[in-house]
Amino acid sequence: MMENQSVTNDSLNPTSSEIIWLYPYRPAEFDKINLIVSSAILIFLCITGTIANMVLLVILPRQRFAYASSSSITCILLTNLALADLFNCTIAAPLTVIMLVADFYIEPHLCLIFKSVSKVSTGMNCFVLTLLSIERYLCIVKPRESLVIAKIGKRQKIYTILLSLVWFITIGLECGMLMQLAQPVWTYVCFTIKLDPKVDLGLSSPLFGIGAGWLTFLTFLAIVTAIVTSIGARCRLSRMIKYDQNSPNHRRIMHANKKINKAFGFIVAFYLLTYLPLYATQILGSILRQPLLDAMLISLTINTFNAAADPLIYISFNGSFRQKIYKFLSL
């Protein structure tokens, strides 16, 4: 009995030699140059994203109006987007860099926490961008209704409830998964898709699979919404141009058509380039049954790039917001 107990305790506390055997794909055994370059890129994106998202969180509340308007809805959505991106830039990505360059054993639970923070950030990022696509589509298809304060106020309440609900579900799933994995899971490999065959996280925590499915749903919801709304907006503007060629607003409509097509085209491309590599990596990893560290590093870098680029894109496209930044800095 005592012998079995000692074996169990030893299995939960591996020695350094056992760790090397269980972690045959540690970052230290990969090309140092790739790790250094990836870490440098991640550090740059973390600094840039942290500063840009903090600027949004400081300036955006000052832009909110006392009454409901399209601008106030945009401020609410962008505030949530900046908050989600800030989590990734200040917690998940920096600690990922530390784990990349550190040549020592990483506690599996810390690794799971970092990944959970990144999943929460990615999920909220996708959902906020979904609501932004819907809001822009409504402003194009129903421009008159977008000026009615009562309808804007109702839409603002719906968005606020949905955002709160998704925040609660996403964080709740990750916290529940971490609580279910309270027992030592030291065979979990941080930087690989492949898990040690002795441990099945799906069996250890059913919420692990549910959380992954929830994140996948939010991601593809954002992609599908962006594509559908872009096509719908394009068709709507095309009909307006066709039937209003002699209208004095024809030039304004043409300008809006060009601007909206660029904006939605950029959003769709941004979704595809940002999130699809994550799932392509997971699919390849499950088929090849190999840890694809290089692909994972690329995916992590793309995800962090997304978090850093969101506020920069908004700042670059919004001239009035840049003026507010200059005014705030001159105080």
In short:
80% of the residues lie in helices and 0% in strands. It has helices at 2-12, 16-22, 32-63, 70-101, 108-141, 149-180, 201-204, 206-243, 250-288, 293-317, 319-329.
Task: Provide the fold topology.
Layout: H1 2-12, H2 16-22, H3 32-63, H4 70-101, H5 108-141, H6 149-180, H7 201-204, H8 206-243, H9 250-288, H10 293-317, H11 319-329
Helix pairs in contact: 3-4, 3-10, 4-5, 4-6, 4-10, 5-6, 5-8, 6-8, 8-9, 9-10
Describe the fold and architecture.
With about 325 residues, the chain is mainly α. It has a single domain (about 30-330), classed as Up-down Bundle (Rhopdopsin 7-helix transmembrane proteins), CATH 1.20.1070. Helices cover about 80% and strands about 0% of the residues. It has eleven helices and no strands. It has helices at about 1-10, 15-20, 30-65, 70-100, 110-140, 150-180, 200-205, 205-245, 250-290, 295-315, 320-330. The longest helix has about 40 residues, at about 250-290. The chain is globular and about 65 Å long. Mean pLDDT is about 65; it is low at about 1-30, about 185-200 and about 290.
